[in-house]
Q: What sequence folds into this?
């Protein structure tokens, strides 16, 4: 290990950098977010301060800007070769990771930094929660206790959405999900208008394609990604963050009578902790172990967090 970088056979196609080595790659990238803005972007149990933004997310913003520019040049070369004048293709970023690991914070911070790039791109953020089947469908298929597993998503609709955005359609619609009612919002949609960059955040966005006799059915959502990020942490830490978040929600969102989880608001701290641990062991940990964690090696970049939620090391796929 020298200069914050490790590049050997153990990493295979990756180069590993510690926090200091990664931070040095920020170069002259300007910090454009205030502490107040960062406070709004952080999660319930996933705070982010200027140190994390400057040392982790500014280098990542710089890397993504270079990727966007390089992809644009490649697109121009291909258009020249084909003798066409194809429209600009949106750059798609995937953000994957476990429940409670902080991938939503990562996606939100990246979007805000990208919006402030000198060229002022249009950047849209879509979470895959909107592509979960409605609760009524999940109940009919006996999948409510598998919510978040690959089979609980309308993967065909998600694939069509990302494909349509990537192909340059001027307007593409996605369902909206309500975390209060824990269900799809009927008749409510997110409309995406030909973005320069689309960020797709979700548990299973790096899942490989399922086998199919239909050639089109062999596609995966990640086939449309230009860059992918996996937010990683030790399982014991993620479990603790999940329980902490559950306890916080019990005191806040669960207190709302309209909340799907309102029945848990009257639990004692000990009862809530036991229930959250039980849910983690029965649903979230098996999903992480069986479906999410195995996709980590498919990411272009892995952000590994320490026990305090700060990123300790970064693994970048070599180009």
A:
């Amino acid at each position: 290990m020298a200069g914050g970088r490790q590049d050997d056979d153990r990493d295979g196609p990756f180069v590993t950098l510690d926090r200091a080595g990664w931070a040095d790659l920020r170069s002259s990238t300007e910090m454009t977010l205030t502490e107040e803005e960062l406070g709004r972007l952080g999660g319930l149990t996933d705070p982010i301060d200027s140190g994390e933004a400057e040392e982790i997310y500014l280098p990542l913003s710089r890397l993504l800007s270079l990727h966007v520019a390089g992809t644009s040049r490649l697109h121009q070369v291909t258009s020249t070769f084909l003798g066409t004048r194809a429209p600009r293709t949106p750059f798609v970023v995937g953000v994957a990771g476990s429940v409670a690991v902080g991938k939503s914070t990562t996606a939100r911070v990246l979007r805000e930094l990208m919006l402030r790039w000198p060229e002022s791109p249009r950047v849209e953020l879509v979470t895959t929660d909107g592509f979960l089947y409605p609760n009524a469908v999940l109940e009919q298929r006996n999948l409510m206790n598998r919510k978040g597993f690959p089979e609980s998503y309308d993967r065909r609709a998600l694939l069509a959405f990302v494909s349509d955005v990537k192909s340059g359609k001027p307007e593409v619609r996605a369902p909206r999900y309500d975390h209060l009612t824990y269900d799809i919002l009927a008749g409510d949609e997110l409309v995406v208008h030909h973005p320069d960059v689309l960020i797709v955040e979700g548990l299973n966005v790096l899942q490989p394609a399922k086998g199919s006799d239909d050639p089109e059915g062999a596609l995966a959502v990640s086939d449309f990604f230009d860059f992918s990020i996996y937010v990683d942490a030790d399982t014991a830490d993620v479990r603790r963050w999940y329980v902490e978040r559950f306890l916080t929600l019990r005191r806040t969102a669960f207190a709302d009578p309209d909340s799907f989880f309102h029945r848990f608001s009257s639990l004692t701290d000990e009862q809530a902790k036991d229930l959250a641990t039980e849910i983690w062991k029965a649903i979230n940990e098996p999903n992480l172990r069986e479906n999410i964690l195995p996709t980590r090696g498919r990411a272009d970049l892995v952000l590994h967090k320490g026990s305090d939620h700060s990123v300790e090391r970064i693994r970048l796929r070599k180009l």
Notes: The first strand starts at residue 5 and ends at 6. Residues 49-84+98-317 form a domain with the Rossmann fold fold (CATH 3.40.50.300). The helical segments are 19-23, 35-41, 50-82, 103-115, 135-140, 155-166, 235-251, 269-292. Residues 50-82 form the longest helix (33 residues).
